[in-house]
Give the backbone structure.
Amino acid sequence: MHTNRLAGSSETALLEAAKLLQSGEAVAFPTDTVYGLGAHALDADAVQKIYEAKGRPSDKPLIILIHERAQLDSVASYIPEEAEKLIAAFWPGPLTLVFRKQPGVIPDYVTRGLETVAVRMPNHPVALALLQLADIPVAAPSANLSGNPSPTTAAQVESELSGRIAAVVDGGVCQVGVASTILDVSGDVPVILRQGTVSRAQLEQVIGKPVLDGTVS
Ligand code: AMP
Ligand code: MG
């Protein structure tokens, strides 16, 4: 497979990328954190392409990227009060929130059988424009071979995934440079599942109560 490089600054190129996503292809694109590898979240073959291109372990669930709040309301069954505060403070931005999943919306092959769903709104004009044009739920982990560092340029994506995905949208260098903080808000106490640039102290300050750090034992 030839991996097309598309210019994130070109409306025509973004439309082409959106059409590739809609038609079930895996497409890499820039976000505020790192480059993501997106695919149509309601298309089992498309989602499978993410796992194959990355060599991703099949038990690892995928994050859903959204461009507007209404999409969250359809995929999550319950949005707790503290999550509302965090959304107001950090979205769009480098914070992924894990919610209880609305049954029958995001398929089990995206969340790998979990009863939760991880959602993020990236703070990047190219990512937001592409998600809006595609107008489908997009599942997107980082655009690297499983186990490798996350890419922050289109050239790094190509050196990882060239020949394995349909296209990469070039949007320059990702500003944040590390993957999002992941916070599970599906239970009684919020738990950090992955550390990113949004810190535990920042999360606690916004919600006014303690957050557990699930990354330390
Ligand atoms: P990646 O973008 O490749 O780093 O992968 C996405 C990350 O999100 C992985 O660390 C997953 O374990 C995590 N993730 C995705 N969905 C969920 C979920 N429902 N619950 C907990 N973690 C999740
Ligand atoms: Mg990753």
Q: What stands out?
A: The CA atoms of residues 91 and 121 lie 6 Å apart. The chain has a mean pLDDT of 97.
